[in-house]
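// run 5 | inverse folding | seed 20
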């Protein structure tokens, strides 16, 4: 089973360095162009199924990159990390490091912690590994979710600092074997 992961195209929150979390915004013009470029690579992949986050930015990205008309399923397991009170605020250098610290003790109302995110995403991957074991799947998702997926396949550093490890650019594609 091959698993391909793509992060959605660029959004205005990405451009403005704001937490978008579950704020349901669409991709911008740059994001549309990124998705069009990614579609050239994706059309050459042997994909049986696309599983996509239900948020607008991932749905729009998927519509652009699904040039081979592969069947699509929407799954909340791929939704972006809930940023709670950080949603639509500017990304702060100090807190951003804490945001991706597995062992952070900083409390933000409504924020899905890194341990909660990894548990959710790893449970999702366990489930699709069982349900679709003979399929090659493209997952259309978000930055924090893609980083959590990375640590399903790679060992997490003992200090829990994940900011500079496993991140993906908009419309970057990553391949994993399950």
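// decoded
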């Amino acid at each position: 089973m091959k698993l391909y992961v793509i992060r959605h195209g660029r959004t205005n929150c990405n451009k403005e360095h704001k937490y978008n979390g579950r704020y349901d915004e669409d991709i911008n013009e740059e994001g549309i162009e990124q998705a069009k470029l990614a579609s050239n690579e994706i059309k050459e992949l042997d994909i049986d199924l696309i599983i996509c986050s239900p948020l607008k930015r991932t749905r729009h990205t998927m519509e652009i990159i699904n040039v081979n008309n592969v069947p699509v399923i929407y799954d909340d397991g791929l939704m972006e990390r809930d940023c709670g009170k950080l949603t639509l605020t500017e990304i702060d250098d100090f807190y951003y490091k804490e945001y991706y610290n597995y062992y952070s003790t900083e409390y933000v109302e409504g924020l899905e912690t890194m341990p909660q995110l990894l548990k959710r995403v790893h449970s999702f991957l366990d489930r699709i590994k069982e349900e679709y074991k003979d399929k090659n799947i493209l997952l259309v998702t978000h930055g924090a979710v893609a980083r959590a997926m990375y640590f399903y396949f790679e060992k997490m550093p003992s200090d829990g600092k994940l900011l500079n490890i496993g991140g993906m650019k908009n419309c970057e594609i990553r391949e994993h074997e399950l």
